Amino acid sequence: SAAEKGGHDYFMLKEIAEQPRAVAETLLGRIGTDGRLSLDEMRLTDDELRDIDKIIIVACGTAYHAGLIAKYAIEHWTQLPCEVELASEFRYRDPILTRSTLVIAISQSGETMDTLMAVRHAREQRASVLGICNVNGSTIPRECDGVLYTHAGPEIAVASTKAFLTQLVAVYLIALYLAQVRGTKWGDEVFAMIQLLGTMPQKVEQVLETVEPVRELARSLAGERCVLFLGRHVGFPVALEGALKLKELAYMHAEGFAAGELKHGPIALIEQNLPVVVIVPSRARPILHDKIVSNIQEIRARGARTIVIAEDGDDAVVPYADTLIRVPAVPTLLQPLVATVPLQVFACELATARGHDVDQPRNLAKSVTVE
Ligand code: G6P
């Protein structure tokens, strides 16, 4: 009913709108007044966390994209090696695991069969397994050694939105907590990041307040056959997530690419008026930022219609953007929290303009509990 959807036409719209609160709830009680994190509820002791020498993340779908972003944060803040793998691949491999390996399983539902099987596969080899889940008491957290719950609230729409943002918050919390417990060469930065995490609900809110032009853009592209997404660093998984949303909801051909790979193939796809969404890294990392500005110029010279997501104040992109979507400036590693939101809105509106029910996309299920 309309009441269940909080006055929105679809659960997905309601869930997109709930993201600032979902992020806030997932942070709640986890940042102490002294500015340090406390995640005792995780059930893994600090001694156990100090013994870890490798992290492997397993997940499916959108949760896998949260895992890809986690790798950048974990390796930077903790200097622990981190691999990310699709649960459906991991479970049939012979991964090299020891008692010092921490496997992190990310799953909104806590019931995805492939992720559950990956958890069992890891535990059989004596690795510790930490779940990041949204549904209390679901199967995956019950089978894990530890769990950090996201507090997104119930997610009804098949395509994940608010759960994804809270999964990002959870992986940032875990990465920063590991750094806090184990020590890191980035001590000051870790402390500053914990503070900044607390401001992310407002940043996400800010994106939602300025997202109307994205809706207009989406409607104008409803007749397109294909959209490409480009990103670098954490913007690469954001590009993958933007493309996945468009496939799931609008049934369009959509691909995400690492911008550095353009010249190794994807650039051959560029033709007149092809819409290409580019996620521009923060200017705080000039090396990443300037490279992507060149990439935008390259694709535009070949006729692409450029849709550029860039932080407030980034003027370098203005001459090359056919459409410019602004997001608040935040540190590079946290940018997925703001950059993903316009892509969710884009896919949702484009699908609606094409006449599709965004809550119940064809052929998809909210949680895939079968082989
Ligand atoms: C299904 C859903 C996706 C979700 C994936 C993993 O494919 O349609 O939105 O990302 O499962 O689900 P999980 O519950 O494990 O996060």
TrEMBL record:
Catalyzes the first step in hexosamine metabolism, converting fructose-6P into glucosamine-6P using glutamine as a nitrogen source. The gene is glmS_1. Homodimer. It catalyses: D-fructose 6-phosphate + L-glutamine = D-glucosamine 6-phosphate + L-glutamate. Its main location: cytoplasm. It is found in: Cytoplasm. It comes from the Bacteria. This is Glutamine--fructose-6-phosphate aminotransferase [isomerizing]. It comes from Actinoallomurus oryzae. Keywords: Aminotransferase, Cytoplasm, Glutamine amidotransferase, Repeat, Transferase. The active site is at 366 (for fru-6p isomerization activity). The chain holds residues 268 to 638 of 638 of the full protein. The keyword Repeat applies. Its EC number is 2.6.1.16. It is an enzyme of class 2 (transferase). Residues 45-184, 217-361 form the SIS domain.
